[in-house]
Specification:
This protein is mainly alpha-helical. The protein has two domains: 255 residues, no CATH class; 39 residues, no CATH class. It is built from 13 helices and two strands. The protein is globular, with a radius of gyration of 20 Å. This is Fatty acid hydroxylase domain-containing protein. InterPro entries: Fatty_acid_hydroxylase, Sterol_Desaturase_Related.
């Protein structure tokens, strides 16, 4: 039987998944090969945001992305193609989820974390509307600076400044790098995110993203341009580690399309009372509710190692609030 504290904690949510929340078993000791396989199988051998990002990357690479020879010289023509390769899937994913979950309310509040609706007539948001605010910053700043980072990498590859990799030359590394990109992204995100919670940076930049306590699909990369500039510095890895343009596309979708789903506000997609796919990440939803916790992702245990881990329990909420009070007094 849950304690009174756990009952109160559960009552703060419309839906709360089983706690304590799980993290990547790759970093647990002693090693558990079965658990590790099941963890990565859920990302790579099932329908997931990771496999979706890979499919989008393949479609964009073969249908839109120009060859490296064309990208040797910066020109609006091919830059626009890269921007389009980012814009179209982002609008489809965020727009479809927003329509189903929020406009149509296709699954009602089933697996919805926060019981509240998206904010309207609220002066906190640009245009006084949470959705319009999120769409503007998501597209105008997010997709633009995401594209700019990729353009720099593609231009570097085309001119020999960034090391390139071809599948026939090293197929094992070519495939392995797809698995390592989300881990690198998680590592980079944690440290940039901690920096963004430094009060001066938080005030001028990161607070824009944290307007969204009750997140939605368009909240994913709704950020201040300063935050986007820091967020997309993770593409610098391609100037160090040999990679292929397909890796760069996949990296971008992991970095930018995955947050559309992780910020959906719903644990799962439900159609005709049947759970179809995993959507949200409660681990990060807790960060938007309680702020000074879960700066990273479940992919790497930085929060557990540095004492900022919220596992969804009432005890963790008390610890987070105590830590926040100490930080701001």
């Amino acid at each position: 039987m849950p304690s009174d504290a756990e009952t109160r904690e559960a009552g703060r949510w419309n839906f709360r998944p089983k706690t304590p929340l799980a993290q990547n078993p790759l970093f647990q000791w002693p090693p558990n090969p079965r658990a590790i396989f099941k963890w990565y199988a859920a990302f790579w051998l099932e329908i997931s945001t990771t496999t979706l990002c890979l499919v989008i990357a393949l479609l964009a690479y073969f249908a839109i992305l120009p060859g490296l020879s064309e990208m040797q010289v910066l020109a609006w023509g091919w830059v626009f193609k890269v921007w389009l390769a980012n814009l179209v899937p982002q609008v489809i994913c965020a727009g479809t989820l927003h329509y189903w979950l929020i406009m149509r309310k296709g699954q009602g509040d089933k697996t919805k974390y926060d019981p509240r609706d998206q904010a309207d007539n609220n002066g906190t948001f640009t245009f006084g509307n949470q959705v319009h605010d999120n769409m503007f910053w998501h597209i105008a700043s997010g997709i633009t600076l995401w594209t700019g980072a990729q353009v720099l990498v593609f231009w570097g590859m085309a001119n020999g400044y960034a090391p390139t990799l071809l599948f026939p030359g090293n197929p094992l590394w070519f495939l392995t790098f797809f698995v390592l990109i989300p881990i690198w992204s998680s590592f980079h995100f944690y440290w940039v995110h901690r920096l963004l919670h430094w009060p001066p940076l938080y005030k001028i930049a990161h607070s824009l993203h944290h307007r969204n306590v009750n997140v939605g699909p368009w909240s994913g990369i709704s950020m201040h341009p300063i935050e986007h500039l820091l967020f997309y510095t993770n593409f610098a890895i391609h100037f160090v580690v040999p990679s292929h343009p397909l890796h760069v596309l996949f990296h971008g979708y992991v970095q930018s399309t995955h947050p559309v789903f992780s910020h959906s506000g719903f644990e799962e997609l439900v159609i005709k009372d049947k759970r179809q796919a995993k959507l949200g990440v409660f681990f990060h939803q807790l960060h938007h509710r309680y702020f000074e916790c879960n700066y990273g992702t479940v992919e790497m245990p930085w929060d557990r190692w540095f004492g900022s881990y919220h596992d969804g329990s009432a005890c963790a909420t008390d610890e987070t609030r105590a830590r926040k009070k100490q930080m701001y007094t």
